[in-house]
Write a structure and sequence with these properties.
By secondary structure, the chain is α+β, with helices and mostly antiparallel strands. It folds into two domains: 127 residues, Leucine-rich Repeat Variant; 103 residues, 2-Layer Sandwich (Ribulose 1,5 Bisphosphate Carboxylase/Oxygenase). It has eleven helices and five strands, in the order αααααααααββαββαβ. A five-stranded antiparallel β-sheet has the order 1-2-5-3-4. α1 packs antiparallel against α2 and α4 runs parallel beside α6. It starts with a helix and ends in a 5-residue tail after the last strand.
Length: 241
């Protein structure tokens, strides 16, 4: 069986994404007994193979890969850094906070757009591990719903009010996503209004907040307000730039 596991691990780096995905699913199906060998192999895998391994670690929900995941937060590949941080948060490995914080500081120093997926992932991981406290104003908190699949969300009927509340408390809204809640079935992504915004990050913070608010309100106005529609919102504080 060890030879089969070794073959599957090697196939995570296959040229064919189909072969790699099949190997990933096979490792998940085999269960936690694959972890020791996979952990040892991860530093020697390519970027795609490491991403597949990260999926295996997350699916198996075992803390044993903690040390190698912390090492991957220092990867040269942005997606590996992001996925490793998110996996550490999923596995509730709190000793990873210093490494994730270093990665987030490096992300900020590079001047990357705050809504870049790596920045989002690192902020989410720090928040989930209790190392970052997002500002949620009282009115926004009162209107918030917590959904199992997407986390904090707000009815689209109250979206403009929440955006105004966030801006009034010095928070810059980066974007929002719309979801349809179907009782007994789950939460499904819904196409939004298609209005994106890119704000000049060299502006004073007050100008950034105001510009983000104005664009977000324009998008909120164009968003369907039907019952059962909710929005997840991404926003940052001045300390996140």
């Amino acid at each position: 069986m060890d030879d089969v596991i070794a073959r599957w691990i090697g196939e995570l780096d296959a040229d064919s994404s189909g072969v790699a995905m099949d190997a990933q699913y096979a490792l998940i199906a085999e269960g936690p007994e694959v972890l020791d060998e996979l952990v040892a192999a991860v530093p020697h895998l390519g970027t795609y193979g490491q991403l597949c391994a990260l999926e295996v670690f997350t699916a198996l929900k075992d803390p044993r890969p903690g040390d190698v995941l912390i090492d991957l937060v220092d990867s040269e590949a942005a997606t590996v850094r992001q996925w490793a941080a998110e996996a550490l948060a999923d596995l509730e490995i709190r000793r990873a906070v210093p490494a994730i914080r270093r990665a987030y500081e490096a992300f900020r120093r590079r001047g990357e757009a705050p809504d870049d997926s790596e920045g989002e992932g690192l902020r989410w991981a720090l928040t989930d591990l209790g190392a970052r406290e997002p500002v949620i104003p009282p009115r926004a908190a009162a209107l918030r719903a917590s959904l199992e699949d997407v986390g904090s969300a707000w009815p689209t009927a109250h979206l403009a009010e929440v955006i105004e509340d966030l801006a009034a408390h010095d928070q810059a809204v980066l974007y929002f996503q719309v979801w349809r809640v179907e009782q007994g079935k789950g939460v499904f992504w819904q196409r939004g209004p298609g209005i994106d915004w890119d704000v000049d990050r060299r502006s004073p913070w007050a100008r950034i907040v105001a510009d983000c608010r104005d664009w977000a309100l324009l998008a909120a106005e164009a968003t369907d307000k039907a019952p059962g529609l909710v929005a997840t919102i991404s926003w940052i504080d001045a300390s996140d730039l």
